[in-house]
Input
Amino acid sequence: MKKKVIIIGAGPAGLTAAFELLKAAPEQYDVTILEESRAIGGISRTVRHNGNRMDIGGHRFFSKDARVMNWWNERMPKQGAPSFDDKWLGREKKLSPGGPDPEQTDCVMLVRGRVSRIYYQKKFFDYPVTMKPETIKSMGFGTTMQAGCSYLRSVLCKLPETSLENFYINRFGRKLYSMFFEGYTEKLWGRHPREISADWGAQRVKGLSIRAVLRDMWNKTFSKKDVKKVETSLIEEFYYPKYGPGQLWEAAAEEIRRMGGSILMETKAEQIRTDGSNRVQAVVCMQNGQQQTFDCDLLISSMPVKDLVQGMNDVPAPYREIAGGLPYRDFVTVGLLVDKLNLKNETKIRTLGDIIPDCWIYVQDVGVKLGRIQIFNNWSPYMVENPEQQIWIGLEYFCDEGDAFWNLSEEECTRMAVRELISMGILDREQDVKDSHREKVKKAYPAYFDTYSRMHELISYLDGFENLYCVGRNGQHRYNNMDHSMVTAFEAVNNILSGKKSKENIWNVNTEQEYHEEKGEAAAHEC
Output
């Protein structure tokens, strides 16, 4: 008899777990994925709208883990990126509507240059902040001196890293923190950085600091580049599926089906039945308006851990309280199709249509709610129907489900987004927008405040269920990148195949030991 494996969520973690189990032992496991939505890929999906494609949040395919890079390459081999003057408008664009699907016939990764900048007071700054002459010119001599002195003080007098604010100040100094981190972080989380745990910085910023930036500049000039020693935030190129991240995950889903796995869409897990001791017995779902029960020998969950615990029976009150208090930030992106942006390409990077080369633009100004701008043309020209004539951008907003911004109608939200671009000098008038589309994403960002400080207690409780494995960003309430989410699935599958009982290795993915050691060292030099 095959063991029944239920996997909740068809995002990177859930799909990776299903694929790895079926690849390793198809004769032992009957695998079913339950996906609440209509889309494959979770927040790594690709949304299609009138011939254009949107990446929800932006996904760079880069990892220091060879397992992940090999896994991606097996699904999609690498290909050089189309240059600005390349005749990239190829055969797939000329196929008749009844012809082969180009997204199935052209499963390749493009090699993309990483360009992301900060837009602050109508000036561009490199992200991460660099010490180039252009940076000093944009900041001005006086501000540069203040930033330098502030950074030197942060080197000599380390603050205790009891908050994200102190984490940033220790690495960049108070002046640069106030310019480039404070306002943006508050936009992202809806909380001031002093209220947020430094753990978020440990996972997302990691080894990035002025010292790391200078070291990186030195290595690029005088040393041979070693990708394993380059901070993730400092990489210069990455891979990207030709038609967006969803293309890879949809291809993976097809492989899972071919191997015998089942993926049930619009099937929402609502109850997790346990046997009153240490095992999960079944998952109760809503499917097409009907309640369905799926018995399981193993449960791999990438659903929000908050919802997982709330759906379990007989959870002691303290753990239900921790789960109920775990915070999230929700996400709205507004796609706009325009003929041009009032942003001149003053870089040496040539692009199709000579637009600015940025993948992302981080909006630091606190006078607008807008957090980040994606330029889909630069992620892949195949994301845009007419990239030689038009620019397809995504405006990213961070909010809370049910707040005033979340509850705006699509028309109201789009009008607000356009007004903000006009106020920033990026667009001239509303009539410049030729098309638009809004996407709303719940629980996009697990947050590190409120009951998060007691997360270790909840982990200990969940680990008591011997056949339950929590994976992925929301499954672990950890702000993981896509590759880290995949690694949690690798580790979970390895444990299942080997019979390993401890799940410490799964929870330890993307916890930086170097960071914790650095915290201890910094504490010895507090002022």
